[in-house]
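step: validate -> pass
step: tokenize input -> pass
step: predict -> running
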Amino acid sequence: MNKLLSSFYPMLQRARFFKFISLFNKAKRAPLEENKILMFTTSRGKLGGNLIAIKNYIENNNIPCQVTAFTSVDMPDDKAVAYEMATSKFILVDDFEPIVYVLKLRENQHLVQVWHAMGAFKKFGYSRKSAEKNSLTHKNYTEAIVSSPEISAVYAQAFGIDESRIKPVGVPRTDMLFDEDYKAKTIARLYEKEPRLKDKKICLFAPTFRGSNVHDAYYPNDFLHIEKLLNELGDDWAVIVKYHPFIKNPPEIPESVKNSVFDFGDEREINDILFITDVLVTDYSSVIFENAILNNPLVLYAPDLEEYDGERGFYFEYNAYSCGQIVKRESDLAAAIRNAGSNNEKMEEFRKRFVSLCDGNSCRRFAEEILKAKS
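step: predict -> pass
step: emit ->
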């Protein structure tokens, strides 16, 4: 973007939401309600991830907060949204939300980013060379949470805010990975859904998408020939395929392997599938961080590593994300899966760097350190 247009960029952002800004400023005449929380998401049809984890924790622990949730399918008119935003002590978002960035928050009001992803893998926000540095985007967060103190600086850079606003409390949605009752029920549900998985070693193939956004997302068909892979793995293996939600075309599963290869694209939470996973195969997906919490062996399969790195970039060298083997050729993939195991020393180093505070107590820390509420 040229310098002249760049200088006008904040003005253009405000102009886009001029009406909403006016409604918000007018609504600020009403009192700010100390125990009121607004959860706001335009990227989801219903609350999920960190937002629902925090909401459930508040309700289950009788924390005296009034929680209102607005999602893409039940969004009221602008006047109602502006009023709720202006009168809520806490506004919680978990993704890119353009409408909040143009607002001048009230004194003692909190705009908290509980980002949907975790760890620090692919560069995002202002870490990317293509980012418009003059933008208002992200810059008015009063707090943003991260999964480990060691990546606080990364998120401060990505959001364009001071590191003092980054709060290492962990990732609330990962608390469920430590819930033994939830784990047992989930495992039973998945085996009931697909009984042919029982008594099999399970490889979860979960690549991220290629393309620039939800409209052109895809995974290259020639990267993986699933029939060939299964034949090389052997009869004691099954493969679950879980594409990124942006990818609309389901994986092609040949008839010959339909008793051993299963498309779990309809599963909302990939974390659930990790409970029955023996080896995770992915490429550039942040599921590697949840997977590390469960200590599952990992294979990174990245035939297009140089191209992807050149376009997107990573916060650390790619091999820093591997607790196992990096594979670039399809012919090497089956052997890597069969031989995958947990390198305890490397896994421990990985956890310390990226997920040290994902220990089953993230919701509690969020309530105590952000909401200043005791359960």
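step: describe -> The mean pLDDT is 93.
step: cleanup -> pass
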